[in-house]
Amino acid sequence: MSHIQRNYKIVEEKMISTTDLSLGYGRELIETELDAGSFNFVVKPIVKAFYKLWSDYNARVGTLKQIEIALESAKTLIENGAINKERFDEVINKNFPSYLENDQTDKQCKKNHKDYEKLK
């Protein structure tokens, strides 16, 4: 295994671990901070189910894809030798649409908003 692949795996594992830790923290906050008073028995299970669905099938999946895109972009730049502004911009511009497609902020944006194109 090359040092690039080894470092790739180390960074990937750390980023995935941090993602899982953050999503787990969200679960903890729902459990400890959500207080719907006498409606707790109804509200809490609904919020927990929604969060689990969102975090497992939307946030985690999208974030894992973003991690892959970012690391593959970096690996491409490193393996191809000289990193200059033109090459960097080329790799970013090629991969940004896929990255944005998996971004949680972009998923919440109104695509027909007059300023949406500024994100891209």
Task: Please provide a written account of the structure.
This protein has helices at 3-33, 40-79, 85-101, 104-108. With 120 residues, it is mostly helical. It has one domain. α1 (3-33) packs antiparallel against α2 (40-79) and α2 runs antiparallel to α3 (85-101).
Task: Provide keyphrases for this structure.
120 residues; flat; mainly alpha
Secondary structure: elements and pairs:
Layout: H1 3-33, H2 40-79, H3 85-101, H4 104-108
Helix pairs in contact: 1-2, 2-3
Give a nutshell description of this structure.
The chain has 120 residues and is an all-alpha fold. It has 4 helices and no strands.
Helicity range: over 70%
**What value does the average pLDDT take?**
93
| Beta-strand segment tally | 0
Radius of gyration: 19 Å
Major sheet details: none
User: Alpha-carbon distance between the termini?
Assistant: 36 Å
Structural class: mainly alpha
Number of helices: 4
Question: What's the order of the H and E elements?
Answer: HHHH
What share of the residues does DSSP label as strand, in percent? under 5%
> How would the global form be characterised?
flat
Q: How many individual domains?
A: 1
What low-confidence regions span 5 or more consecutive residues with pLDDT below 50? none
